[in-house]
Amino acid sequence: MRHRILFVCLGNICRSPSAEAVLRYQAGQQGLSLEVGSAGTGNWHVGQAPDARAMSAAAGRGIDMQNLRARQVSVADFTRFTHIFAMDQSNLADLQAMRPEGGIMPALFLGPASNTPPGDVPDPYYGGAQGFEHMLDLIEAAAEGFLETLS
Ligand code: 4NP
Asked: What is the DSSP code string of 26-60?
């Protein structure tokens, strides 16, 4: 079965669209066909493009995020996707609270799912550019680790 991966953060304008773009990019480099998406637990930014700082940081690594638009996670996502990855523990708790019976179990992206030390991808929204670079460092390592688990 084709893997369908959904990344979830709070606003869907910083961390989860970055993870979506990075995983899609890495999978493409490896010639892997994956379906990748992202969503937010909140609805404040629905319809918006990713944060300009996230797009700029990704562009610096050759990754394009311009076509992504924010949406809110839905109950249907728990049966539509084969993996749902939360960017931090708070996102994970929100996902667990809305998971329908029979829906897939959400997991933290950093940890066993990606062969990385467990933890949060810190929210860079209220910080500076350095936070976005750190976010991408964590996401790139986890995306590589996750792809290794598939092969
Ligand atoms: P994200 O970052 O969850 O990584 O997309 C945030 C973006 C917006 C807000 C919070 C976090 N906000 O409060 O608007």
From this structure: HHHHTT---EEEEEESS-TTTTPPPPHHHHHHHHT
For the whole model, what pTM was predicted?
A: 0.98
Give me the mean pLDDT over the 28-54 stretch. 97
In the reported structure, the alpha carbon of residue 31 is separated from the centroid of ligand 1 by a whole-number distance in angstroms of 31
Does residue 38 line the site of ligand 1, with CB under 6 A?
no
**H or E element that contains 107:** strand 107-108
Q: What is the pLDDT of residue 1?
A: 74
Residue 127 Cβ < 6 Å to ligand 1? no
Radius of gyration of the chain (CA): 14
Q: Put residue 34 in one of left, alpha, beta given phi > 0 → left and psi -120 to 50 → alpha.
A: beta
Atom of ligand 1 at shortest range from CA of 121: 4
Alpha-carbon distance 45 to 42, whole Å? 8
CATH of domain 4-150: 3.40.50.2300
